[in-house]
Amino acid sequence: MALKVAIVGLPNVGKSTLFNALTKTAAAQAANYPFCTIEPNTGDVAVPEPRLEVLAGIAGSKEIIPSRITFVDIAGLVRGASKGEGLGNQFLANIRDCDAVAFVARCFVDDDITHVENRIDPISDLEIIETELMLADLESLEKRVVNVEKKAKGGDKEAQTTLRLINLALTPLRAGKPARVVKVDKEDEKAWHMLQLLTSLPALYVSNVDENSADKGNELSDLVAARAAEDDAKAVVISAKIDSELAVLDAEEQAEFLESLGLAEPGLNRLIREAYALLGLQSYFTVGPKEARAWTIPIGATAPQAAGVIHTDFEKGFIRAETIAFEDFVALKGEARAREAGKLRAEGKSYVVKDGDVMNFLFN
Questions:
Q1: pTM to 2 decimals?
Q2: Nearest 10 degrees: CA dihedral of 204, 209, 213, 216?
Q3: Which of 46, 154, 205, 271 has the lowest CB atom count within 10 Å?
Q4: Residue 80: how many other CB atoms lie within 10 Å
């Protein structure tokens, strides 16, 4: 599954520093002036998965292949972006191609780093960005609605569905609320997605804090967490500065640095896992001498759907899945002993895959 998360925020809140740390590159220029990112940078990152190393150790796998998420660093948006202010709404289109949005809020004070609004107020930062996205959605829908209404009146069934969903979205948007507050029936999900609404995407609020607040956050990040709870969004605290320094260290140096700071892991690990969970995803594993690999599937996926992630032919010709729970695979030191102990199960087409299942598929 190709998964993309847009990193958005006002200029100078730490987006590009965060992106650089995520991708362990300096691809996005992190400078102290607005619009230092003038093209949307993209970077592929691995989903932290310690279980893979355990499985690879047991099976003697030569290679470890984790699941991956693509992050897109969007140029800093400003008040009026939906009307062309700053670098304009050209970058809003890049968000439409993503599956979720990570809103970065500045939760640190540093007189050497200017703020485009000349104040430190993370809630206001979030509201400015959300407002610009809502205004862009409103403009997009209001431009489309007249043409869709004509087709709907002519009896076009698809247009009638689209019109109903447009009106469903316009109600909260006109009231100053994002489209993600709308609960869409399962049969309408595809048509709803086709509207490409910026504010219908799942939201993750990222509080970028100072180094001293990296473990527990601060008063500013507490405000962001409270706002996330109100908005049915997820929240995570990171220090982009610390993580950018960690990104250039080797594993041993990272461990020493984290220990000196009293941190159990890089903040980026939490961010990536939260983004993964935000999209309603989970992993199952395939394990062998060649490789131990994590495969990304939606929570609730059946065995044939999980097989289809490897190859469509696996889903079409699915016969059954041989499944071992991760805990059983580890406790019994591999597939052979799990089979002998009766912990290897034959599952059919209706089996709902669980997070961490170790699987092998038989197909026609």
A1: 0.83
A2: -10
A3: 154
A4: 15
